[in-house]
Amino acid sequence: MAIPLPRQRAARARALSQVPQAPGVYMFLDARGDILYIGKSTRLRDRVRSYFAGRPATRKLRRLRSELAGVDWQVTTSEIEALLLESRLIKRHQPRFNALLRVFSPRPYLRVDAADPFPRLEVTRAPTPDGARYFGPFGNAEALDTAARALSDALGLRTCAMPGHRLPGTSPCYRLDLGLCLAPCARREAAALYPRAVTRAIAAIRGRDRGALRALVSRMQRAAERLDFEQARLLRDGIAELQAGIGQEATLQTALAARAVLIACEADAPTHVRLLGIVGGRLHHYSEEEIALLADPAQRARQSAALAALCWAASPPQGVLLAEILDEVQIVAAWLRQRRQLAPPLALKARCQPAARCAQVERWLAGISAGGAAHLDERSRAA
Questions:
Q1: According to CATH, where is 3.40.1440.10 located in the chain?
Q2: DSSP collapsed to 3 states, 145-168
Q3: Residues near 210 by beta carbon (within 8 Å), at least 6 away in sequence
Q4: Is 129 helix (H, G, I), strand (E, B) or coil?
Q5: Opening angle at CA 285, ends 374 and 45, nearest 5
Q6: Peptide bond before residue 137 is cis, with ω within 30 degrees of 0
């Protein structure tokens, strides 16, 4: 619903009162009706009004005010849906005042090729459904590459690009002499040791091997002691990248395989939980549920049936993932990174029998209900 924005202050205030106080996306329009700028907010009316408060603080805002003649909006049910809609609309309409988000910028991911007999940690910006394991998205590619190399050094993983099946019998590089690689190229015993090292690397990426992460911290401290502050900084940032990305691969995995993933994270109200259903890298379900109601078997059964049905929307990906899907993966992962998850993500597979799948979801919801109730009891005792 587009409305004109008069120049006169009182008339503009009356016009802005029509904008709903709800989450969603707003679009500023020029006199021809073309979109100048697209933004999102959890409180649309307050956000749109803020553009007209006081003198413009920047040249960009001064230019925007001088050109805009109207505003349009689309209401969403949640903040995360507003984020996703904003990104889609900006890339579709290419507004002049949205310089940063008009082009998709792929984030870095860590790749571990399970089909390779001696996989390595690879940094890539183009995950594909090739059977490899991908982790991320992460933010700083240079820091992630430094952390991946340091983790490879600490665990003895190879860093060479040669396919693993061609390694045995080739000449070793300097990393063997420095004790940085198990050297499957030259050491027969490496075939038995290497899988364990890969398992530890994946556990470190997922936050389940504190020993490997401590090894990275030790390398950072040694770099600082020898006054190599740039290396120490990259290692520090790389460790932060790995820790911030812990558990964030669930959204990506739905885009790489025919599956749906359910995620539970804290809501603004401590008595509620946010439930997200991700299918094919995209948000297909969002709701905020009262934790106490999930303790009711009848309510839990109804919710389980609705969530379990999500897996039927999952279809195997074909070829390289579309940029718009990766864009949504990155947005959802970044949003989840800022919120505490109340349970491990639950992966749903279409091959599972419907009754078994519903039972699986119901057990997951029961765990959330029990954990949430315990958390509320702790909060009330602390207060």
A1: 3-93
A2: HHHHHHHHHHHCCCCCCCCHHHCC
A3: none
A4: coil
A5: 90
A6: yes
For the chain, what is the total number of helices (H) and then of strands (E)? 13, 11
Secondary structure class of 362 (helix, strand, coil): helix
**Residue type at 261 in one-letter notation:** V
Helix (H, G, I), strand (E, B) or coil at 206: coil
Stated as kind and residue range, the H or E segment containing 278 is strand 272-279
Q: Which of 39-48, 82-91, 152-161, 238-247 has the lowest mean pLDDT?
A: 238-247
- Reading phi first (left if > 0) and then psi (alpha if -120 to 50, else beta), residue 169 is in left
- CATH tag, 3-93: 3.40.1440.10
Q: What is the pLDDT of residues 106-125, one digit of tens each?
A: 888 899 998 999 999 999 98
SS3 content of the chain, % helix, strand, coil (to 5): 45, 15, 35
Strand partners, 26: 39, 73
> Considering only CA atoms, which of 79, 38, 85 is closest in space to residue 282?
85
Q: Please state whether beta strands 109-112 and 346-349 pair in parallel, antiparallel, or not at all (unpaired).
A: unpaired
C-alpha to C-alpha distance for 221 and 232, rounded to whole angstroms: 7
Q: Are 135 and 204 in contact (CB under 8 A)?
A: no
Question: Contact 292/373 with Cβ under 8 angstroms?
Answer: yes
Nearest one of 43, 38, 65 to 54, comparing CA atoms: 65
Where would I find the H helices in 206-275?
210-225, 229-244, 249-256
pTM of the model: 0.73
Whether 18 contacts 73, CB under 8 Å: no
* Cα–Cα distances in angstroms (integers) from residue 95 to residues 46, 60, 67, 99, in the given order: 22, 13, 13, 8
pLDDT at 223 over 90: no
What is the per-residue DSSP string for 67-122? H--EEEEEE-SSHHHHHHHHHHHHHHH--TT-TTTSS--PPPEEEE-TTSSS---E
Rounded distance, CA 154 to CA 174, Å? Answer: 15
Three-state secondary-structure class, residue 258: coil
Contact (Cβ atoms closer than 8 angstroms) between residue 231 and residue 256: no
Nearest to 38 by CA among 16, 3, 20, 64: 64
Q: What is the pLDDT of residue 338?
A: 83
Q: Determine the pLDDT at residue 379.
A: 53
